Amino acid sequence: MTARIDHAVSSGTFTLDGETFDVDNNIWVVGDDEECVVIDAPHEVSDIMAFDGGRKVKAILCTHAHDDHVRAAPALREKVVAPIMLHPDDKPLWELTHTDHLWDVDIADGFEITVGGTALRALHTPGHAPGAVCFHAPDLGCVFTGDTLFQGGPGATGRSFSDEHLIKDSIRERLFALPDETVVHTGHGDDTTIGAERQTLDG
Ligand SMILES: [Zn+2]
């Protein structure tokens, strides 16, 4: 039996460098009838918990620590009793949002977690944020890219802790190593594929 993917959109704000924007964030939940993992915990815990359906939540996986991706993580952890997992290079971003909570487990490149018989493997893809990671699910033929790769190109790199050169290297070296038909589930907006974005970035 293969795990399934549930998806919803949660609305709220993103704040960095003293500016605040309205944003819609994707919530991705991967699992079977027994257990699941949540990828990113944006604005509202209730939006996320609508999906767990009483299943055991094995982990709250963070693609990076911008506030629109981790704001609800500590509250969700309290409700579902699951560890928050984050790449430690995003500590400075995490601390901008949560001064009185830490995450529980460090994600390193190659870190793997299995849920509902399906493995999710972390690819460290710095650039949008220093600790940005993507989660590749080979059995599902997809990758969860957070804000590293969107439909139409790389994530934003205009603000603090971002690096445009680095994000393009990460995408080329790590994400473009995946098969063209791999479906890309993004942090904001619509899905795309590795093949389509390879055309966009490298023409
Ligand atoms: Zn972001």
Keywords:
single chain; 203 residues; alpha/beta; 6-stranded mixed beta sheet; 14 strands; 36% strand; globular; binds zinc ion
Question: What would you say this structure looks like, in words?
Answer:
By secondary structure, the chain is of the alpha/beta class. The chain contains 6 helices and 14 strands. Strands 1-2-3-4-5-6 form a 6-stranded mixed sheet. The longest helix is centred in the last third of the chain and has 12 residues, at 164-175. The chain is globular, with a radius of gyration of 15 Å. The mean pLDDT is 94. The site of zinc ion has 4 residues, from loops.
Number of helices, where a helix is a run of at least 4 consecutive DSSP H or I residues: 6
- Helix/strand order: EEEHEHHEHEEEEEEEHEEH
Q: What ligands does this structure carry?
A: zinc ion
Helicity level: 10-25%
Give me the secondary-structure category: alpha/beta
Strand order of the largest sheet: 1-2-3-4-5-6
Low-confidence stretches: none
For the biggest sheet, the summary is: 6 strands, mixed
Q: Could you tell me the radius of gyration in angstroms?
A: 15 Å
Q: Write down the oligomeric state.
A: single chain
Portion in beta strands = 35-45%
Mean pLDDT: 94
Q: What overall geometry do the principal axes of the alpha carbons give?
A: globular
Measured distance between first and last alpha carbons: 38 Å
What is the tally of beta strands?
A: 14
